[in-house]
Design goal:
Blueprint: H1 2-20, H2 34-37, H3 52-63, E1 75-79, H4 82-88, E2 97-104, H5 111-130, E3 133-138, H6 141-148, H7 151-154, E4 160-170, H8 177-180
Antiparallel strand pairs: 1-2, 2-4, 3-4
Helix pairs in contact: 3-5
Length: 194
């Protein structure tokens, strides 16, 4: 009886360990990893409007970002008014939106707030890519300055400054990563293994 029980236990163990080899591994095609590994900063957008449902999903993704001490220091401003958006980004395509993420401080020396706002922006960027939207992030000083000059129009508090602006829009048919994306640095120039 003990020999039969031992054989059954060994057979069950063998089947269990064999089944582990058939479990899917985490790959770049994993649904959760795909928009992270395959994202790109789009240079081409169509004029098909971003839907309200997509905007709400983007906002929720930004609000769910991690932050130091769970302070959530960001303010997310969604700019759907194309005329207001063009005051920030003159060449924005009709139907696209801008998302301005701001935080308390001067936008230069408030490092922890800036990092947290960057995490919120990245969450939104990845969510947009996962929904099939194109996205492009802007942090250049001129664009940030012009954004901060519109605080009243944007509804931003006076003690806030823009940290990052992201354009979201639908991609035109047939867009590809090579033709629409900014080039990426070679991994060996950006990663050190020790």
């Amino acid at each position: 009886m003990q020999k039969i029980l031992l054989k059954k236990t060994m057979l069950i163990s063998l089947l269990f360990f064999l089944s582990l080899s058939f479990l899917p591994a985490q790959t770049s095609n994993d649904p959760a990893l795909f928009p992270i590994i395959h994202n790109f900063s789009s240079r081409n957008f169509s004029n098909v409007p971003v839907s309200n449902a997509q905007i709400e999903m983007l906002v929720q993704a930004g609000l769910r970002a991690p932050s130091a001490g769970n302070r959530q220091p960001w303010l997310i401003t969604v700019v759907r008014d194309i005329n207001l958006a063009r005051q920030i980004l003159p060449n924005i395509v009709d139907g696209n939106i801008l998302v301005v993420i701001s935080g308390v401080g001067d936008g230069q020396t408030n490092g922890a707030v800036m990092l947290d706002c960057g995490l919120a922006a990245q969450n939104m960027f990845i969510a947009g890519q996962a929904m099939g939207l194109g996205a492009r992030q802007y942090t250049n000083p001129g664009l940030i300055r012009s954004t901060n000059n519109l605080k009243a129009e944007l509804g931003m508090p006076e003690n806030h400054n823009a940290i990052i602006v992201t354009q979201f829009g639908r991609l035109p048919p047939g867009v590809d990563v090579i033709g629409s994306a900014s080039p990426r640095a070679a991994p060996e120039t950006r990663v050190i293994y020790r």
